[in-house]
Specification:
Glutaredoxin_subgr, alpha+beta, Glutaredoxin
Length: 135
């Protein structure tokens, strides 16, 4: 599974101490949760409830007729761990990891990528291919 590979590669933790093994195990379970969620839904958006850019992405998708699966990380029990995983996946060490949009089981990106796809006209065909739009 392509998503699982990308998510799993973001989980690599070096070291042999028990603490590192426990952290790796926790991240592995979070990785499996995210992978299952992303592969089982046409569009998944990871957000934080008070984030204005997250709101913009959700409104854009809703406006296009998409019903994405939305995970608000500040309201999810494993939200902090998922956010850490998204930081690793997006390559944004201390930057913006949300909104994080997955379409058709693949990581599309954040607000910049989604808006660029929308402006270029490639977002709707991508959503249709993923089965998120039928018209």
């Amino acid at each position: 599974m392509e998503v699982a590979k990308g998510v799993r590669s973001a989980v690599r933790i070096n070291g042999g101490a028990d603490q590192h093994r426990a952290a790796a195990s926790d991240l592995e379970s979070v990785c499996e949760k995210v992978s299952a969620l992303v592969s089982g839904n046409a569009v998944v958006v990871f957000t934080i409830s008070g984030c204005c850019m997250c709101h913009v992405v959700k409104q854009l998708l809703f406006g296009l007729g998409v019903g994405p699966t939305v995970v608000e990380l500040d309201r999810d029990a494993s939200g902090g761990q998922i956010l850490s995983l998204l930081h690793r996946l997006s390559g944004s060490g201390g930057g913006k990891a949300v909104p994080a949009v997955f379409v058709g089981g693949k990581f599309l990106g954040g607000i910049e990528t989604v808006m660029a796809c929308h402006i270029s006209g490639s977002l709707v065909p991508l959503l249709k291919t993923a089965g998120a739009l039928w018209l």
